[in-house]
Amino acid sequence: MRRRSLAALLAATAALLGACTAAPEKEKEKDPHSAEPGTLRVLASSELSDMTAVLEQVEKDTGVTVRPTWIGTLDAVDMLATGKADGRYDAVWLSSNDYLRLRPEAAEKVVSETPVMSSPVAIGVKPATVRRLGWKPEDVTWSQVDRAVREGELTYGMTDPARSNSGFATLVSVASALSGAQSALTDADVTKARPRLKEFFQGQKLTSGSSGWLAGAYSRRGDIDALLNYESVLKGFKDLTVIRPKDGVVTADYPLSSLAATDQETRDDVRRVAEALRTDGVQRLITDRTFRRPVVASVPPAAGLDTSRRRELPFPGDLSVADGLLDAYENELRRPSRTVYVLDTSGSMEGERLSRLKQALTRLTGDFRDREEVTLMPFGSAVKSVRTHVVEPDAPEQGLEAIRRDTAALRAEGDTAIYTSLEKAYDHLGTGEDTFTSIVLMTDGENTAGAEAGDFDSFYRGLSGDRRNTPVFPILFGDSDRAELEHIAELTGGRLFDGQGSLDGAFEEIRGYQ
Q1: Mind listing the pLDDT tens digit for each residue in 385-401?
Q2: Is the Cα torsion angle 276, 278, 284, 286 positive or negative in sign?
């Protein structure tokens, strides 16, 4: 089996951070790396984008402006470890610094750490499902959840542990509970828990690179019983019963940390912001607005947050344990991925554009998982070919090399039949597959041949079951029409990715959704 370590996953995205980070439009208009007096450049977990009102209050209280750059926790850790944050950021504000502790070269870049709030991993379950299972929310354990999944009584969605801290914290929580570990997970605990974990993850019907998209996909589908995420995320749903399993969970504490490369004046600004975030008034604002728990004893949690105690499950203390757990999840435990790559190879792709596409796809093969099915569907005036390959666990290189050969053989010619090609992709996928299924559309232009947008809309609305639940993830590239691609993403429940700066980055970011 291919080994995919946490460090390798982080390193694979290091060169792609600019394209992989979905920043608000106003952040794109100004260089987030330029230093300004009274402004802190903060590398922040993307889930903290709901803290805008809080940061506005902190600015009023301190005179210090916090300028965040939104990023995934794993990517942020890699930036720190490889020195890419030196001189570009003043502080880091992640959901947890546990990853830093697994990588000494990242941990040494941090010189302070002030917890700001907390949120435990939890399960949000439809009230009707809670009643059907006969659960008392305050008494539910991970073993009960596991039993319901094994008996086909519970399905759920969660974020990708290789790209999301909420996903990895959930994976650790489940593995710790089902292995019976009495302390931080060990390699032996992971090995012991694998059979039960494999059964548990058969209940996962949705995966995502971000909590926001996961929430939208859950609401859109309507046929999934639960979500596994941080309590604060789940409390945003009015139709979910939020359960903290009685046998313990991992909790995020959102520490604001100064970076070693900064001067004393900047560190003083970080300290002032941290102190302001922990004042009673701001703590109340945090818990009322975001459903995160205050870390100041004098401030009670927001109404509706359960105050009963739960065991805190420790984070793995060794990188090899994190590696083993991620490797098991990616290549063995989770449902396999099944993806059709609908690739524009029309005449306008001739030259540099086609070269960039080939390079991006070739590099992407290093990230394909065991058991993954990959279909390349190049198109011009019509679909040119349909080539499907499976990354078999006992001979992964055979499938990967076949994908590389097909990629190298791509040729640019013809018009651009986007909608006809998408219809062919849905027809190819069929129904009833027990996989995470998706379509990736890469085009450098507008539709000029075959079916029109209205035809595809009618085609899609005529789909049912698994086919209708298959999202399209379009990539903006070259002269493609943003409005056209946004419509395709919205119609099918997908998400638009920007490949203008880095096509590699767009393909890599989509991996969290496959």
Answers
A1: 999 999 999 999 999 99
A2: positive
Superfamily of domain 336-513: von Willebrand factor, type A domain (3.40.50.410)
- The answer to whether 145 and 201 have CB atoms below 8 angstroms apart is no
CA–CA distance, 93 with 415 (Å, rounded to integer): 47
pLDDT range class, residue 15, cuts 50, 70, 90: very low
Sign of dihedral through CA atoms 318, 319, 322, 324?
negative
d(CA 127, CA 212): 22
- Helix, strand, coil shares, percent, the chain, to 5: 45, 20, 35
Q: pTM of the prediction?
A: 0.88
- Does domain 6-117+253-294 fall under CATH 3.40.190.10? My reply is yes
Class of CATH domain 119-251+310-330 = alpha beta
Burial 268-297 (b: 16+ CB within 10 A, else e): ebbebbbebbbeeebbbbbbeebbbbbbbe
Residues 482 and 498: their CA atoms lie apart, in Å, by 9
The two tokens of residue 48 are 């903290």
